[in-house]
């Protein structure tokens, strides 16, 4: 216990500091209120809000989800109240709770990202901005921003130019690309302070009774333990290429062991998404399990463990 | 949001096959005290090595805080897919992880009214507890239960006793009146002076009842069943379009703004499309 | 039963015809001998051989595998005896069994593919050639052939030019690309008669005890039910783009239901890989289950069901 | 390739905790008749809803075709990770899917010889059946069992009786001689005129024994344990470098060319690298 007390669980992403590395994942923690019924939000490293857009969005029609082996598909379609209502209703409540807040934003055009960044620049009490660029770009045949180096760069530049001040930018990337490290380099060059890896994997389930795609939106994003090996690979590749850029890792973390795996691969913090659906207190359980595993392995701080699997890497 | 929701380890107290269903009893401590008709629980599936990452929701059939080992809830479960087959194969003594009570409950009128309770398949489950409460408030309760066939009618003896009349319909006519519940409801409303309908069952049935309720000008509270990933309001998978008092249609979460909703507020038949005019439609 | 007897289970890929649509997956059926102990190989639609290279290969060092949630990683590294020994030992035995044979070839250079195609052109009793272009190209910084439209095209062209005659070419693609339909178009333009979708997904597991990548080769290929939604998506996308090109689908098929899902998405046949590791008779079980499901749904032939999920697709 | 391999549904007949292990008995029909010491079985894990797609291999401890309900095999299982914990938590009556017998067996000398059997941890399991056969052929059998501590020594009474001498070593000295099996083997070879060593246990132990066997010029057959995805020879995950009689090192499958191999043919300590000169090294 003496050992545990002296363990330093703090972490940082860009210039933002956090008490511990366990965050919620964007889109998987509601407004925060729903989870606060199960635990004190201040126990989180940070609460990452659902990606907010410029205008209100109804999201996609139902069915919006399908369970898959060790995972699930979703096609929520970024349902939300729009940035103005969000800043008016959600942020003040979260601020009151005393939890570190990471706001996730998403746009349909480069201009959207600029608008959202301007709206955010004056907002106090925010630790960082997660920029979800894994959304369809309506100006570019609906291709996802993060699938293309140029559009990825343009979105992040728009945020960088408009955010002002010190708010760190975390660019959230999709794994659905030929080479994620290339995209990572591009967005870091464009001004991202840190990276969030990975968003869901594009996938589909066909209902063998109706014999049609199960989701109303046809394709959806695959999340949960099924994709963890893909997340670990992406984090490992990007950390190898850009060892000084901090990574918020996510994808299938359901236990302290899983969080440790992402941290050893190079993540400085991990977001918990799908696991919360199966277990409302997953974040707290994982936080405790991870700390115990780190202490057991003789680490004095979380930071020592970040990227530890790369030591003497010869390949 | 159900402010009494808790996450607990729950022991299976009993598991009996009844017709096409399993009647299962779970020890739940204080959850029983707070459970109201219409609420549901969400149960983890498949144990430690499971490939199924999402909980399954089950309407509370009955709840009591006076069990031998504290509070318990009773569920009526159809062994349908891998999750419910796993759950219904567990023996008494096994433990599962349970979150509850969740969701909204049927509204209980302050005055005695004439109520019609309509259940489809295992949708009859929450109606028996509701019926008891309504009776205790001096309401007259009639009940209609429908299913595809006799095996799928869940109507235990105690339940039957608590209602003034019970009408059963089956698609194949194997018990009761052949046909759908919606075939018999109009007469029951007219003959018994029904003022409110409570219903639970498949979406198509709830939609049909909503239409009848509107025709006759009676209230209609229904418990809907949308596919749910979290059950606690954090994932936005379980939404359906509901018209608010301000006339605006919003995609609301059936797990926390439901499952019990006012039938007339629901934009029915909206699977696979967003109804026109919905707030933020894109 | 009368109904079942009249059901037409036959399928075709390019000009090759098969009795039924259940094939083994390359690298997952040994030499055929090992499985023949559990069932009569003639029950298979076809046996797809392990990808064979020009020269003998020791493959990668161990550990070569890691179990993952609803899946596994492998990094066998194409261990094999080389084409000459293969043609001398394996093919004659397989031919004797009377099973339809699909030979899988893999190269490290465009020239390798040409050599392999020339070696194959004279070989009798082969139904089709599966060209695994999901291998590292030693002439192009180890980038996988199928990750790049030009190298994918070059490899398939080399095979097309050298194979001669009627032997259909099935190009096997990796899902690790930004847009698999683009690659599919490219290889079809280069002469592929059919497509095999999908190869494994690049992934990694870190052993949280040794705190190093679990596989000696660091990354490996993710297979099994975990990737099925990715396979379904890839097959659906490619079938939508190229409805007349036949697809051999694979990725996480473990039951008749799963095979049906891939067929509804657009596959004309499905290969069974990882499922065989968990169940030696998986192919036979799946074949029976799939036929029952097709008959139950009122199809008179397998062919009617291919791509059925695309009907009235409005999105 | 074991030509007797079959895939069957097997019932658990008994499951008893013995020290750190579970001794479990499975009904297996004809598989028992063909099982030889050194062979293993591969068992599906986690049931219908499992997230674990691969079988687990277990050495056959004993086999008999004279059980009450036909043939059975006995296994000794360490509850180590999710798979073995699931399996050892099953109650008698439960059924699992099993493939066996698999792999090569220990070679039995045609002449009576002086044999030393060495087991590490649950690696002692296959040695008792082997010991019985060797004795029946007139061999002298000495045995050494090692483990980290007393709880991990698996040595049932009947087993002990079948050997001429039993030496136990534990790392922590909690029973027997403190230290490793390799500390006591040289003396045993010298004192008892050992002609052949049979071993089963962790790879490091097998490597150490191989060295000693070479020093003393005695034969050494060992059962290796590589991580296996299929167990039947179709996946190539379980390979290890083995020098053939032609002097060529090949990556052979431990599931069909093993698990029992000649210790002197193995290129030890080759994890994470391909030994130089291996056929097809790239
Ligand atoms: C509020 C509510 C109350 C319910 N009450 C009962 C009850 O009292 N008794 C009972 O037997 N079942 C009830 N269900 C249905 C139950 O939750 C399961 O969907 C059902 O048991 C099938 O699960 P499965 O794993 O066996 O089948 P599968 O088909 O393998 O799995 C169902 C999967 O699809 C999702 N899903 C798809 N369609 C639906 C749908 N219409 N409803 C819910 N989930 C869906 C599930 O979440 C799950 O991921 C209720 C559902 C809800 C939402
Ligand atoms: C030929 C052979 C004989 C065996 N005999 C026994 C026995 O008699 N008693 C016993 O308790 N166990 C035995 N094992 C080990 C057993 O197969 C399992 O690996 C062990 O039970 C741990 O599995 P798990 O799921 O509990 O642990 P986990 O660590 O969760 O899973 C193990 C996973 O890693 C793989 N794996 C990793 N390293 C190894 C390794 N060194 N050996 C095998 N698999 C590995 C497994 O295939 C599986 O995918 C034997 C293994 C082999 C290959
Ligand atoms: C229902 C659902 C909604 C999501 N919504 C968002 C979102 O709004 N913005 C975003 O960047 N990611 C979103 N994600 C992706 C998650 O934040 C996370 O990157 C992904 O699910 C992988 O983590 P997991 O396996 O822990 O869920 C969503 C995921 C799910 C399952
Ligand atoms: C152990 C193993 C070895 C494989 N070897 C090959 C190979 O040699 N050539 C090839 O094209 N694909 C190979 N694959 C990929 C499979 O053929 C298949 O595309 C993939 O595993 C997805 O199918 P599954 O989920 O049914 O296994 C291999 C897969 C595994 C698991
Ligand atoms: S089920 Fe997740 S919000 Fe309703
Ligand atoms: S375990 Fe698959 S080849 Fe040996």
Q: Can you walk through the features of this model?
A:
The complex is a heterotetramer, with two copies of chain A (315 residues) and two copies of chain B (282 residues). Chain A has one domain: TIM Barrel (Alpha-Beta Barrel). In chain A, 34% of the residues lie in helices and 19% in strands. Chain A has eleven helices and 16 strands. Chain A has an eight-stranded parallel β-sheet. A four-stranded antiparallel β-sheet of chain A has the order 5-6-14-11, with no helix packed on it. Chain A has a two-stranded antiparallel ribbon with strand order 1-2. In chain A, helix 6 (180-189) crosses helix 7. Chain B has 282 residues and is an alpha/beta fold. Chain B has three domains: 6-102, Elongation Factor Tu (Ef-tu), domain 3 (Beta Barrel); 106-225, Nucleotide-binding domain of ferredoxin-NADP reductase (FNR) module (Rossmann fold, 3-Layer(aba) Sandwich), CATH 3.40.50.80; 226-282, no CATH class. In chain B, 19% of the residues lie in helices and 34% in strands. Chain B is built from six helices and 16 strands. The radius of gyration of chain B is 18 Å and the shape is globular. Classes of the chains: A alpha/beta (315), B alpha/beta (282). Bound molecules: flavin-adenine dinucleotide (2 copies), flavin mononucleotide (2 copies) and FE2/S2 (inorganic) cluster (FES) (2 copies). One flavin mononucleotide binds at residues 25-28, 50-51, 74, 76, 78, 104, 132, 172, 199-200, 223-224, 227, 250-253, 272-275 of chain C.
